[in-house]
Amino acid sequence: MNSFTQPPTTAAQQVATHHYDVIVLGSGAAGFAAATTAACNGLKVLLIEKAETFGGTSAISGGAVWIYGTDQAKAAGFDDSAEAMRTYLKQTIGAGYNAELVDTYIERGHEALGWLEKHTELAYAIRPLSPDYYPDEQGGTDRGRALEMVEYDGRALGEHFKTLKMPPAGMLLFGGMMVNRADIQHFLSFKRSPGSLWHCLKLMARYGIDRIRHHRGTRLTVGNALIARLATTAFANGVELWLSSNTDSLIVENGTVTGVLVTRNGVQQRVLARGGVICAMGGFAAGKLAANFRPDTGTPHLSMSPSSNSGDGMRLGETVNAACGHDMAANFFWAPVSELTHKTGERERFPHLVTDRAKPGVIAVNRAGQRFVNEANSYHHFVQAMFATGSSPCWLICDSEALSRYGMGLARPSPVDNSALINAGYLHRAESAEQLAQAIGVDPQALSQTLARYNADAREGVDHVFAKGGNSYNRYMGDPDHRPNPCLAPLSKAPWYAIQLHTGDLGSARGLVTDRNANVLDRSGAPIPGLYAAGNDMNSLMDGTYPGPGITIGPGLTFGYIAASHIAQRLKLAAPLKTTVEH
Q1: CA distance linking residue 452 with residue 103, whole number of Å
Q2: What pLDDT does 200 receive?
């Protein structure tokens, strides 16, 4: 047992003392899964969020989960097995494979999702086709493991809708309209499909009505819908949310974590929880600590994590001798990111995940004017290649045909006018490939040779250099209507365009080491009573690898549910205590 004891609190710290059954730190998917599970089990829950809005990185994510054996997969008749899932994870994770956590995820992931869908507003739908990121590895599959969020009406949140974290402008249409993967395909196809045109018109009509009464559209999709669904149930079951509240320290009594000291509205509050504290504060990707755990390329690195994800979980854990992950395959979940500087000086970042890199007529080149990676591979793999080949920053290049059809980064497809992005220096435009090379500072002759080789392969439909479009995941990310290869088309139609990509991340993978109950372990391997971790505060069971879509939110929901369930079971076995709240 951990023997750390909290120093005596001062009189000032005891100005206000509050009592709960469970304290959850962080309001992302893991935090809300834990809070909602605890509340639905009859526990009194306080959810503490450092930022002014709730939802964290989860609210601006794709919202997908990657879980074995869900009810949705079984209903669709998809053939999968726990052993296949286990084999695939052994292949992709490698030396950092943690059998205890992987087995728990396989055995209890579908249990957690099923329970949350039964007791909360949470609702997922199976993706009929969604290959694992390494589909040719043993145990990999093209369908059955990835689920996507069902859209939601944000008006169900009532007054809380205004404090739900809003996605960046670059992820919205018309300044405030959310879209999902299916919607994007409809917008790309509306010129040639009456059905897609009708779909888009209905979305825009709904959005127009919303803007009469709300600051943005109330039709929520992807990660925003995920958070809104859980939050609606949490609030309905009495979960109390403190925003703009900084967790200063843990309260520890006789080796057990019993609460936290929190600064709220400039006043420190003493908050006790008889069941324990769950850390789900989003990791450390946006904090000063992050630079110590990623390769130094000498160039900017752009994280998509909000500034509040500064490593508070690790800071708190260190005070009670908690163990942290080490020797991982990666300490972050990588993604290439571009950045637009507005006239006001505000910087807007865009993660290049699914909308452009895999599309026909789009390639990536380094400063030498050479391709260095299969552009259609996962975003995590793409950045790994940037690090491995010294290709940071690099350039995403396309011709006018590709830009008009698919867009690129913050640049929208036709008929949107992207001249403002050109004037801002985000989107580079030139009348020839040679002029584009000169504009972005790459070797014109090398780029010309790269294009000649790539275009020849594209006409043949086979990328002989990097095999773009060579597996089912690549083809799924390409254009299904393009033949013969959904990912290949020559770059030949002027003008030419380019966007600079930097190494970036979606969050940290390194975190507090936990057991199968999400209980944080100390450096001797013993559980620290009363302290739990989930989400990116929990050391990734994937060991910093990225096997498929939703491998952060899936475990986040699962271990948030497990942590709260473990606390609820412990409290049921303990003698009942009367709790009060002092205001």
Answers
A1: 49
A2: 78
Q: Are 485 and 520 in contact (CB under 8 A)?
A: no
Strands laid side by side in the 332-334 sheet: 302-303, 504-508, 332-334
The CA–CA distances, whole Å, from 61 to 69, 111, 275, 306 equal 23, 23, 30, 12
Split at pLDDT 50, 70, 90, the class of 196 is confident
What band does 436 get if pLDDT is binned at 50, 70 and 90? very high
pLDDT of residue 581: 33
Question: Looking at residue 164, what DSSP letter applies?
Answer: B
Count CA within 13 A, CB hemisphere, residue 180. Answer: 21
Average pLDDT over residues 124-147: 97
Question: How confident is the prediction for the chain on average, in pLDDT?
Answer: 93
Q: What letters, b where the CB count within 10 A reaches 16 and e where it falls short, cover 98-118? A: beebbebbbebbbbbbebbbe
**Residue 359, exposed/middle/buried by CB under 10 A (0-12, 13-18, 19+)?**
buried
Compute how many other C-beta atoms are within 10 angstroms of the C-beta atom of residue 315. Answer: 17
Residues 6+ apart with CB under 8 A from 347: 339, 340, 341
Calpha distance 137→146 (Å, rounded): 17
Check: CB of residue 65 under 8 Å from CB of residue 222: no
DSSP per-residue codes, 40-95: HTT--EEEE-SSSSB-GGGGGS---EE-SS-HHHHHTT----HHHHHHHHHHHHGG
pLDDT of residue 323: 98
Instruction: List phi, psi (to 5°) of 360.
Output: -60, 140
HSE-up of residue 105 (Cα within 13 Å, Cβ side) = 28
What is the C-alpha separation between 187 and 181, in angstroms, rounded? 10
E strand map for 243-294: 245-253, 256-264, 267-279
* Domains within the chain, CATH numbers bracketed: 14-59+226-259+284-330+508-538+560-573 (3.50.50.60), 179-216 (no CATH), 337-502 (3.90.700.10)
pLDDT in tens, 279-323: 999 999 999 999 999 999 999 999 999 999 999 999 999 999 999
